Amino acid sequence: MLRTILILGRVSNLPTVWTNVLAGWFLAGGGWDRELLWIEIGVSLLYVAGMTLNDAFDEKWDRQHAPERPIPSGAIPGGAVWSLGVLQLCAGVAVLLLATDMVWIWIAALVGAILLYDWIHKKTPLAVLIMGACRGLVYIGAASALLPMDQFSVILWVLVAATVVYVAGITVLARSERGGDRSPRWLNWLGRAMEYAPLFLLAVAPDQMDTGWLRTTLWVVLLVFLLGWVTISMRLLKADMGLGIPLLIAGICIIDGAAIIYGDMLAGAVCLVMLPVTLLFQRFIPAT
What we know:
mainly alpha
């Protein structure tokens, strides 16, 4: 049963959520304190809730197209999945409201985006933008615990935009991973192009941060690394969609690390360490 719960929550991708929180927090001037841990816990609960409820909303579709998923395979009843997802969602909201200074409107916006995506994502390809927005709202929410919105840095907003596009692109590509998708072919090609949006983030970061020789060197290394990671992942998509998508998801750690390594090198390094951690987790729990 525990493995079923982990599969429902796609917990192998949690390290990428942790780096999202780190990026939003440190780009807003945060440090290593207890509130950061509570935000990580609260947002993690919202993430697994969203993934769990995704299966609950998709029960009918999965019975036709993904019979190996937990509900149609009989590993767990649909009613239990609904109860589990709602419990996780309420727990995440409670943690964020009671243990952090995250602005409530961004908590509400994140919860709303999660539920809206789960509800409509099989009905319209445009729902991929909502999935991207969920990630963007994590950055904004974490930063809101420290700064008002009008004081957010340029690099934070660029990171939000780049990740929204990147995650939306992954979602576009993931829609074709299973049968039954009716997305137009041009949308799939657009999804591939969207995966290179974060390169713009690295291009503008040196203009917004301290660019000593060490940070400039790191910028070049990360630029090449991200370009190579995305390109290799995209090539693998043609041979094995089930491998390419998880690699693209793991690449979020590189994006976050690149964004904050200029401001806090330790936080940036932690983000990069989360890359192999994500890949390790994905070996045991499916990423999609």
